[in-house]
Every structure is written in C-alpha cells, then in structure tokens.
Amino acid sequence: MPMPSDIETLRERLRRDYDGFSPAQQALARYVADHLADLPLMSAHEVARAAHCSPATVVRFAQALGYNGYPDLQQLVRRDQRPWLPVAAREHRFGLIGGSDSVAAALAAERHALEDTADRLGQRGLGPLAQALAGRRPVVVAGDGHARVVVGLLVDRLARVGVPAVAVTGLDLPDRAWLETLAPNGAVLAVSIGREAQVAQAAIDAARAANVPAAALVDSSLSALARLPLARVVPADVRAGAPSLVALVAVAQALVVLVESAVRRGASRPDENGERELSAIGA
Prior knowledge:
It is built from 12 helices and 7 strands. The longest helix is centred in the middle third of the chain and has 23 residues, at 99-121. It is α/β, with parallel strands linked by helices. Helix 3 packs across helix 4 (55-64), helix 6 runs parallel beside helix 7 (123-134) and helix 8 (147-160) runs parallel beside helix 11 (246-264). Strands 2-1-3-4-5 form a 5-stranded parallel β-sheet, sandwiched between helices. The protein folds into 2 domains: 7-83, Orthogonal Bundle (Arc Repressor Mutant, subunit A); 122-282, Glucose-6-phosphate isomerase like protein, domain 1 (Rossmann fold, 3-Layer(aba) Sandwich), CATH 3.40.50.
C-alpha cells in the first residue's frame, strides 16, 4: 500500500487502520495524529517516550505506513505543519549547542506552541462553541465512559453561570427521552474520550434531527466527531489504558467562562422555554 503523501491522507490511514493496530501502535497513532505540529521537533526516542512505547515501535510504525523510516514521516509533517523550520534544524537536538539557526528555530517553535495553546483555550478556539451554546436552554451535555467526569463538571459549571444543562451519560429510557425531545432552543455538547463515543454520537445525531446546534470536545483527531464544524480536539495522555483528563477539564472550564461572558454581553437572549422544557422532561 502506498505511503500517505500528505497530512490528510495520513490522518485517514490512521483513522481507517486504527482498530487493527496493536495497543502500542494505537497509542502511537493517537499521539501522531494529535501532535503533528510537534513531530518535526522530536526524535523517534522522544516520540516513543511521549507515546509510551519503544523507539523500535516508532520506526516500525512509520515503515508499516509505507515510509522508509521515521525521518521520512517527519519530513512530510514538517512540510505541512512547519514549513518555516529549516530542514537542518531537525538534525540538531534543541537545547544543545547547534548554532544560531537551530536556536532561532527552537525559539520560534516554542512561540508557535504557546500560540497554539492560547488559540485552543481562548476566543479563537472556543469562542464559536461558546456563542453556539450561550443562548440555548437547556444544553444537553452527553458522554459515557471516562467522559462522565467531564460531563458532570460541565453541567455543574454551566448551571452556575445561569445556563440550564442536563447530563446524558447512557442510552436508557430517561436519557433517550432527553435526546428525543430536544427543545427548539436547546443545544448539544458532546464529550468523547477514546473509543467510548456511543452516547456522544447519539446526542449529535439527535441534535441534527432536531436542527439545534451541536458542539463536541474530543480527545483525538482520529474520532469521527472531530470532523464536526464545532468540534475541538483536546489530546489526552493515555497510560495503562486510562486517559488523563487534566487537559480536557481545563478546556471545559475555559469554555464555560466564555459561555458566561457571551451571556453577560447579551450575545443571545435566553427565554423561559428551555426552563419549562427542563421541568417537563425531568418530571
């Protein structure tokens, strides 16, 4: 099978073949897909450490995708994600003596990473989601498995800022009732972590059927939900099969702050319909 020749083809290959990968390869595939911009700055050993696998797994994984080795995969990513980075710079280890070019490239890369983080947590990254949710009542926050922790946090924080919200963490009769009777002024916020996406996907499908806004927070760009216009990817570090929720919790809290700001600005005028729906369905 020919090697992926561009980033989108690479993502599609990783998404398509994910279920057939070994556990170590799955962890590596998730890391590669979610940290593409970092790969040009990382050696195979550094990627292995970050993805909790061996350097040999990184090399064999690149070869299984059709590349001669990790450097070829790295070069493809560099052309797409960091075209301004000198090719020679990746041959040096940043932080060691490598000449002024490598130092300048390292500083530029750090600045780029900080800007990426600020975008994800700020108005540019989360603003569209906040605007979509701010005037909606109720907001149905849905997710199962590890996502239940984040769902509970979001429901609690949204309620505190005056946005009625309800948690859907399963597909039994009471939960399905929320999805099947979405208020016209309601919205859905789906949270998906790992392969536990059944409830999140059902909520997105219900939002489409009801023609209400649907946003999503997902932990990997390999998730099908990552393709939604109002989806944001928040990579989770996975160790021993359990994802770390630190980053996703931080983004969830930042989203609620922006929702509160949008409500206060009067970006939308909440009405009482959502509250009536909330009481009727919950009764």
